[in-house]
Design goal:
It is built from 7 helices and 3 strands, in the order αααβααββαα. The protein has a 3-stranded antiparallel sheet. β2 and β3 form a beta hairpin. The longest helix has 22 residues. It is globular and about 60 Å long.
């Protein structure tokens, strides 16, 4: 009998790390095929849903290192997908805004996401996927 299934049953932390790595690799390959990095896709998605915000807010909410966020926003700005302007309420920060080109790019990327998720989580039933999503939400929620 292979060892890893026993280890995973005994150590859910190890199993989650390995599953996370596999899903992260698949997500990056998918995002690259769509012409965006995972971080870029997430930034466009958040800006579309919540509106303009600072790079710091994007970094905190999306759990992306601040130095990486600078590069992500630089690349998105060079592609014409976002615009950075001084925040009128705090001149030390920038407000990042989604452009029309960014909205179009996000729509195309989002259209390919359901098929990617179905393929990546094919081993799970719809109910199991919903349960996994709920459990991961609990793990990622701030603890008091």
């Amino acid at each position: 009998m292979p060892y890893f299934p026993r280890l995973a049953a005994e150590r859910p932390d190890i199993a989650l790390c390995r599953a996370s790595t596999a899903v992260a690799r698949a997500a990056e390959a998918h995002a690259t095929a769509q012409g965006l990095g995972v971080g870029q896709h997430l930034v466009l998605k958040m800006l579309a849903e919540v509106g303009a915000c600072s790079q710091q807010t994007l970094a905190v909410e999306l759990r992306i290192d601040r130095s990486v966020m600078v590069t992500v926003c630089d690349d998105l700005e060079q592609s014409g997908y976002v615009r950075r302007e001084r925040n009128p309420l705090d001149r030390r920060s920038y407000a990042v805004t989604l452009t029309e080109a960014g909205s179009d790019r996000l729509r195309r990327a989002e259209a390919a996401t359901p098929a990617f998720l179905d393929d990546t989580f094919a081993a799970l039933t719809a109910d199991e996927r919903a349960q996994l999503t709920t459990l991961l939400g609990k793990l990622l929620a701030p603890h008091p």
